[in-house]
Amino acid sequence: MYKAPVEETVFTLRHVAGLSAAMAEGRLGELSDDLVEAILTEAGRFATEEIAPLAEIGDRQGVVLQEGQVKTPDRWPALYRAWAEGGWNSLTASPDFGGQGLPHMLHVAAMEMWNGGSMAFAIGPTLTIGAVEALSAHGSDALRRTYLPKMVSGEWMGSMNLTEPHAGSDLGVMKTKAERRGDGTYRLFGQKIFITYGEHDFTDNIVHLVLARLPDAPAGTRGISLFLVPKFLVEADGALGARNDVFCHSVEHKLGIHGSPTCTMIYGDGRFGGEPGAIGWLVGEENRGLACMFTMMNNARLAVGMQGVAIAEAATQKAIAYAKERTQGRAPGWQGSGMSPIIEHPDVVRMLLTMKALTQGARAITYACAHAVDMAHATEGEEARHWTERASLLTPIAKSFSTDAGVDVASLGVQVHGGMGFIEETGAARLYRDARIAPIYEGTNGIQAIDLVTRKLPLSDGAQVKDFIAELRGIAAAVRASNDPAFGDTAARLEASLTDLEAATEWLGTALGEGRQLDALAGATPYQRLFGLVLTGAYLARGALADAGDGRRAERTALCRFAAENIIAETAALKDRVINGAASLEAARSVLG
Amino acid sequence: MYKAPVEETVFTLRHVAGLSAAMAEGRLGELSDDLVEAILTEAGRFATEEIAPLAEIGDRQGVVLQEGQVKTPDRWPALYRAWAEGGWNSLTASPDFGGQGLPHMLHVAAMEMWNGGSMAFAIGPTLTIGAVEALSAHGSDALRRTYLPKMVSGEWMGSMNLTEPHAGSDLGVMKTKAERRGDGTYRLFGQKIFITYGEHDFTDNIVHLVLARLPDAPAGTRGISLFLVPKFLVEADGALGARNDVFCHSVEHKLGIHGSPTCTMIYGDGRFGGEPGAIGWLVGEENRGLACMFTMMNNARLAVGMQGVAIAEAATQKAIAYAKERTQGRAPGWQGSGMSPIIEHPDVVRMLLTMKALTQGARAITYACAHAVDMAHATEGEEARHWTERASLLTPIAKSFSTDAGVDVASLGVQVHGGMGFIEETGAARLYRDARIAPIYEGTNGIQAIDLVTRKLPLSDGAQVKDFIAELRGIAAAVRASNDPAFGDTAARLEASLTDLEAATEWLGTALGEGRQLDALAGATPYQRLFGLVLTGAYLARGALADAGDGRRAERTALCRFAAENIIAETAALKDRVINGAASLEAARSVLG
Predict the structure, then answer these.
(1) For position B126, what pLDDT does the model report?
(2) What is the rounded CA–CA span in Å between residue B170 and residue B164?
(3) What backbone torsions phi and psi does residue B95 show, to the nearest 5 degrees?
C-alpha cells in the first residue's frame, strides 16, 4: 500500500529545490519550518490513510452515467468532502477569498502525495485549483465575489473546457460559439470532449471555464474568448438557481484513471427548456481567452508533471516491497538458506535503482519549477523576470520528463512483479495504465518539446538557458571539490552531460536563428529528454551534497553515483540525435507511405 | 484495422533471415518460392480477415469461469476450429503424425501474423504446438500414437503446466507430487498457476504437460519429471473416457490478453469421485523433466518474441493510419490549406520511424533465430552444432528485444494517438496492455539476460559469439563498400556499435572467467539490449543491401539510415553500463533499504 514519502518531499523542497534558501532570504513571508512539516505531514497522512485505500475501488468501479448524472465510485464523494474540509483546496489561493496564500512549493509536494494515493481522484481537485487561478487573475470583481469563495473552500468544483473533436493540440480551429445577449452575458453553443470531472456528484455546482468563439472573432487562436459557465445559475444571494443549458452527454471508457469522469459536454442544445444556449460570463477580455487559459495551463502542466512523479513513487514503493518479500532462485553471493529475495538479484537491483533515480530526478525538477514560480511571485523587476523565465523554461521539462518517467517506472514496476504484475489485483498494472495519460494531456510531450525549443530557449536571447547551465556546472564543480570517493565518477559524468547539453542548445539556437525550423523540431524531443537527464544528475548531486543531518547522505550519494554512471550516459546519444538526426529523419519520411 | 504484413514477412525471411540462401543450398527440401508465398499469403489472410475482426470482442468480453468450465469470447471457438481446419496447427509437425514438416521460418512468420490479429487468441494454439514438439521429442511410442495425431490436427489442444505460487523463475522448488501407481502410470497432486488455456471450450479434450516431483526425487531442478495428463482419459479406441482429476479452479483478471484464459489448475483433489489423483503418463525419463520441457521452451521463447513483433507491427500500422488522417496544427513547410496531417510534424515522424525500425529489427532477429533452428535440423555434425549454438545464442535476444520493442512501440502508438489513444475503443490501448506480459512470461527478460551472458556467451569457448560478430562486421563492410550516399553515416555507426559489442562481450568473458558473477550479472540486461540494437542495425542494413526487385530499396536504405543515426548510438551508453555499471550498482544497494 502506498505511503506518502513525506520525508523525501520535505528534504527535496528544502535542500534541492531551494525552499530553505528562499525562507532564509525572507522570500516566503512568515512560513516556518514547523509549518512546512506540519502541512506536508498532514497532506501525506490524508494521502496514505484516506485516499490510497480508495484507489482500487475507484479503478474497479469507474464512473457511471445515468440520465446526465455521473456517479463516482463508492465513498469518493465523501472522500472529496473530507479533503475539501481539510482546507486542501485553498492552500495557494488568495486570503481575500478564503485561501491560505501558501507557496506553490508546498502545493506541488502535497499534490504529489494525493496523486500517489489515487491519480484518478486527485486530478479533479487539481483542476479546480487551476480554475481558481484563472478566475483570480482574469475574472471581474463580480465574478470573483460570486464564485471564488465557494471554489476556494471546495464547496463547488471547477472544470476546464478546451478540447473539441477537431481541436486538441491546435485550439485555433475550435467551433464552440458564444453569442452576446446584450446584458453583458453570453449564450454558448457547442461540444467539448475529454472534459475531466466535467460532471460528477462531488459538489452541488460545477463551474466550467469554457473557451469559445464570438461571432465576429478573428480566425485562429486570436479569436478565442474564455467564459465562466456554471452548471446551476447563481442567484443574487448566492443560492443555486436554474439549471444552465450544459450537460454531460457521455463518459469515456479509458485505459486508466477509471475513477475520474472524462466527459463529453454539450452546451446550448436547449434540453432543459427555455431559450437554448448555456449562459456564460466573459473572463478577461474578448478574444484574449487563450492568454487567460495559459495562466492556468502552466500550473496545470506542472500539476501533470506531479502525477508522473506520484505514479513513479507509488510504483517504486510497490516494487521494492514485493522484491523484498518474493523469494526466487539464489542470487550470487546469497548466504541465506533457501531461495533469496529477488531484491538480491543484480538485475532487480538495477531496475529498482533506476526507478528510484528517475523518481527522485523528476521530483526535484518539478519542485524546482515550483520554486521558480514562487520566486517570481516573491520578487520584482529584473529578478521577477528572471524567475518567470526560469519557471517557463522548466515547465515543459518538468511536465514531459516526469510523465515519461511515470510510464517508464510503472512499466519497470510491472516487470519486477513478474507474472503477478500482470494480474490486476496486484495493483502494479493500474499504475501502468494510469501513468499513460500524463504524457498526453495538458499538451502532449511532443508539444512541450516544441515549446521548450522554440519559445523557451530564446528567452532573454538565450541568456536564461545559458545561465541555468552555468548554475548546473556549479553543482558538478562542487561534486568535484568534495573529493568524496563515494561519488565515484559522478563529477566527470555530470560535466560530460553538461557539455552535451551546451552543444545541443547551441546547435538548436543556430538552427532556429537560420530559420531551419524542421531541423530544430526534429531534435526537440531528444533535447527535452537530454535536459531532463542532466537535471536529474545535477539535482541528485545537489541533494547528496546537502547536509540535512538525517543520516541519509551516504544513501543519496550512492543513488547519485548510480544515476551518473548508469543513466546519465544517455546524454551523448541524445545530443547526437539532436545535432545529427534531422537529415536521416527527413530522408526516411517516404518510408511512412 | 490490422493488415498482415505478408510482403514484409516474405522479404525478411528471404533476404535478411537467410531463407533464400538456405533454399538455394537445398537445405529445405522441396520448398519452393511459390509455396512460401502461398502459405504466408493464406496465413496472412486468415490473420487479417478472420482473427483481427474478433480481437476487440475478445478483449471486451474476456473469459468467464462457471462450474469449472471456461467460456471463451463469442465466436472464438468457431475461429479456433476454422484455424485448425486450415491446417495451421500442423505446419512444423512431423508428417508421421499428420504434420507438414515445414521449416520453422514459415511458422514464426505465420505466428507473427496470427498474433498481430489477436495475441490473446494466438497464444493458445502456439502452446499446443510447443506441447507437440515436446511429445514428439520425448514421448513414448504409445503416447505419441494416442495423442499426437489429434494434437497435430488441432482436434485437441495442449497446455504447459510449470508455474506454482512459489515456483516461477525458479522451478526447482515446485511441490506438485507424482506417485507411481505400479502400472506405469502416475497420480498427480498439486496446484499450478498462470496456466494459459489450461481450460477452455475450443476442444473436447486438453492435453496438459505437467512438471511434478516423484516421492524419491532429488531436490531442486534435477528432481523434476514431465507428465502428460489429459483432461479426459482416452480409451483404447481413441474415444474420450472418464474425466481425469484435474480442473480449473479460477481464472485471472489480467491487464491484457483478456480473451485468453489464465488458469489456476488443481490436480488430484478427487472432486470427480473415485480415488484422488490426476492420472498421468511419464514423458521422457524420470527426473529429466526439465530437460524435456526445455526442448519446447526455446521455441516457446521464440514464439513469445513473435508476439512482441506482432504487437509492434499492429501498433505501428494503427499509428501511421491515424497520423495520416488526423489533422492538427501546421507543420513547418506544410504547403496545404488548413491544418496538416500530424504525420507532417517532425516529432510524429520521429515516433513513427522509431516504431518502424524497432519492429523491423525485432522481426529480423526473430526470423534469423528461426533460420538457425531450421539449419540445425537440416545439417549434421559440426555444422549442426554451429547452428544449434547460433539458435541458442539468438533465442534470449529474440525473446527480450522483441518483447521490449512490443512494449515501447505500443506505448509510442498510444502517444501518437494523443487523447484518443487513452480511449479503449481506439484499440491502441489494448496493444499497450497486451504487450506488457511478453517481457515477463516464458522467462522474464532478466532471466533471458542471465541465460545469454552465463550460458550462451561461453558457447564453444566464446567462438560462437565471436564468429557471429565477425559476420555482422561483414554487413557493415558491405554498407561501406556500397558507397551509396543514401546510407549516410550508417557504415561508421554500425562499425562503432560492433566495437561496443565486442568490448562488452570481452569484458563479460573476463568477468565470468575471473568468477566475478555479480559484476557480469549487473550488466546482463544492458548487454542484451546492446546486442539487440546492433542486430537491428545490421539486419536493417542487410535488408537495404538486398536486391529484391520490389522497388523498395530506397525506402529500406532510408529506414536503415534513420536507425543507424538515431537509435544505434545508444550502444555506447549500454557498453559503458555493462563495463562500468556494476560498482555503483553494488554501492547503491543500501538505498533500497
Answers:
(1) 86
(2) 10
(3) -60, -25
Cell of A200: 460528477
Spatial distance between the Cα atoms of A570 and A567, rounded to a whole number of angstroms: 6
For residue B327, the SS3 value is strand
B525 contacts chain A (CB < 8 A): yes
The CA distances from residue B329 to A168, B339, B363, B486, in Å, are: 9, 5, 34, 31
If phi > 0 it is left, if psi is from -120 to 50 it is alpha, else beta; for residue B418 that is left
CATH number among 1.20.120, 3.40.50, 3.30.70, 2.60.40, domain A445-582: 1.20.120
Residue A131: closest CA among A68, A42, A201, A195: A195
- Looking at the complex, does the CB of residue A410 fall below 8 Å from at least one CB of chain B? no
Helix axes B553-566, A570-587, angle to 10 degrees: 160
The three grid cell numbers given for residue B132, joined into one nine-digit string: 507437440
CA distance A531 to chain B (A): 17
For chain B, domain boundaries: 444-584
DSSP string of A65-96, one letter each residue: EETTEEEPSTTHHHHHHHHHHTTGGGSSS-GG
Judged by a CB distance cut-off of 8 A, whether residue A294 touches chain B is no
Residue A382, classified by CB atoms within 10 Å of its CB into exposed (0-12), middle (13-18) or buried (19+), is exposed
User: Known catalytic residue: B565?
Assistant: no
pLDDT at position B125: 87
Q: Which three cell numbers stand for residue B430?
A: 489494448
Distance of CA A469 to the CA centre of its chain: 23
pLDDT of residue B297: 84
Reported ipTM: the value is 0.97
- A253, amino acid identity: H
What is the distance between the alpha carbons of residues A504 and B506, in angstroms, rounded to a whole number? 33
Strands B206-212 and B157-161: parallel
Residue B261 near residue B72 (C-beta atoms within 8 A): yes
| Residues 6+ away with beta carbon under 8 Å from A67 | none
pLDDT digits (tens, 9 = 90+) for A363-407: 999 999 999 999 999 999 999 999 999 999 999 999 999 999 999
Q: Which of B440, B60, B250 is nearest to A428 (CA)?
A: B440
Backbone angles phi, psi at B523, to 5 degrees: -105, 5
In three state form, how does the secondary structure of A273-312 look? CCCCCEEEEEECCCCCHHHHHHHHHHHHHHHHHHHHHHHH
Contact at CB, A436 and B429, closer than 8 angstroms: yes
Provide φ and ψ at A210, rounded to 5°: -130, 130
- Is A255's Cβ below 8 Å from some Cβ in B? yes
Q: Which of residues 139-178 of B touch A (CB under 8 A)?
A: 163, 166, 168-170, 173
**Distance between CA A470 and CA A477 in Å, rounded?**
10
In contact, B542 and B475? CB cutoff 8 Å: yes
Q: Low-confidence residues of chain A, pLDDT below 70?
A: none
CA dihedral of B192, B197, B202, B203, whole degrees rounded to 10: -40
Q: What angle do CA A104, A109, A114 make, to 5 degrees?
A: 120
This prediction has a pTM of: 0.98
State which H helix or E strand residue A228 sits in: strand A225-230
Task: Report d(CA B416, CA B342) in Å as an integer.
Answer: 9
Look at phi and psi of residue A250 and say left if phi exceeds 0, alpha if psi is from -120 to 50, else beta. beta
Give me the count of residues in chain A: 593
